[in-house]
Design goal:
- The structure holds 2 protein chains of 2 kinds.
- By secondary structure, chain A is an alpha+beta fold.
- Chain A has 7 helices and 4 strands, in the order ααββαββαααα.
- In chain A, strands 1-2-3-4 form a 4-stranded antiparallel β-sheet.
- The longest helix of chain A has 19 residues.
- Chain B has a two-stranded antiparallel sheet with strand order 1-2.
- Chain B is rod-shaped.
- The chains are: A alpha+beta, B mainly alpha.
Chain lengths: 174, 130
């Protein structure tokens, strides 16, 4: 099905690499951005595709628990439909854009888009720079990084304070 | 994806609940010093987890770099550049640079956390060897 779609819109083959990174065995460390310019006299169109990562707060876990559990509970899972064992950072989405200057024709393929993003995109359909949409994706990707880092740091400090206290080290030194 | 696999945090929690005093810890008593090697493994797993976080940031950073390059290419190749067009290119570039700076800030924080984990891991390993 997707191959038909990609063929119909003459999507550059590299995009398949990004699509294949999803699935039951996602390639966690794969990522990047490819773009291609097309010329017909002058610049006629360009294609760009990439996948980016993001942290998303997992739903449905009560925040009132034992301190470590509480910290665990606010770890992140990118895709709600994945099991609890999934790594919290996953491929969040892949993006493909083909922009044709003749008539300003835009083709978008989004893998696993958020509803919020789709709504905001519709407001940006007519903008002066066709790359402006990508700022939206990148800013959406950056939303939870700070909170995610804070939770990891809390988890680490909690783990350290429980298990290897300075008191214990002081005892050894004495 | 293995359905029964637990996230790193949950594994840490299980380890701690099963060995509340020993995991990652030092016990000083009549029997002397006890440090479990497992605590080093836990710290190393956690380090791997944080490194994945760093990799994610680096991937996003690379994407932003590529988008900036594309933006520059398109600006150079544009046949007509009115004032609005110039502002639009600059606006996109400035936004991408801002996001790149934010990612660099996160990366510095993650590096700091990795250093702390490594330091703690080395300490525990050293105590274990003793």
């Amino acid at each position: 099905m997707i191959r038909r779609l990609l063929t119909a819109y003459q999507v550059m083959p590299t995009f398949l690499d990004f699509v294949h990174a999803f699935g039951t065995n996602p390639d966690r460390t794969f990522g990047g951005c490819k773009y291609k310019l097309h010329f017909s006299g002058g610049l006629s169109s360009y294609e760009v595709c990439y996948n980016f990562k993001s942290a998303v707060r997992r739903q449905g876990i009560p925040p009132h628990n034992w301190s470590i559990r509480q910290t665990v509970s606010i770890l992140y899972c990118a895709r709600k439909n994945l099991t609890a064992g999934s790594n919290p950072i996953q491929f969040y989405k892949a993006v493909y854009q083909k922009f044709t200057y003749d008539g300003s024709k835009n083709i978008w393929i989004l893998v696993q888009p958020e509803t919020r993003i789709r709504k905001r995109m519709s407001g940006l359909i007519k903008c002066s720079n066709p790359l402006k949409h990508h700022i939206l994706f990148m800013s959406a990707a950056a939303v939870n990084w700070r909170a995610y880092f804070n939770d990891l740091e809390t988890l680490f400090l909690d783990m350290v304070s429980r298990n290897l206290s300075f008191r214990g080290i002081a005892d050894i030194c004495n | 994806m293995n359905a029964v696999e637990k996230p790193v945090g949950a594994k840490l929690e299980d380890d701690l609940s099963q060995h509340p005093r020993r995991i990652g810890g030092v016990m000083v008593g009549t029997e002397g010093l006890i440090v479990e090697f497992r605590s080093v493994q836990i710290l190393q797993k956690f380090e791997v987890h944080v490194r994945l976080f760093k990799t994610a940031l680096e991937i996003n950073e690379d994407i932003i770099t590529s988008l900036k390059a594309l933006n520059s290419d398109l600006r150079e190749l544009a046949t007509v550049q009115d004032q609005d067009g110039k502002i639009a290119w600059r606006s996109v570039n400035a936004s991408l640079e801002q996001q790149q700076a934010d990612i660099l800030c996160h990366k510095r924080n993650v590096d700091c956390l990795i250093s702390q984990i490594q330091g703690r891991s080395q300490l525990v390993r050293h105590l274990f060897i003793i």
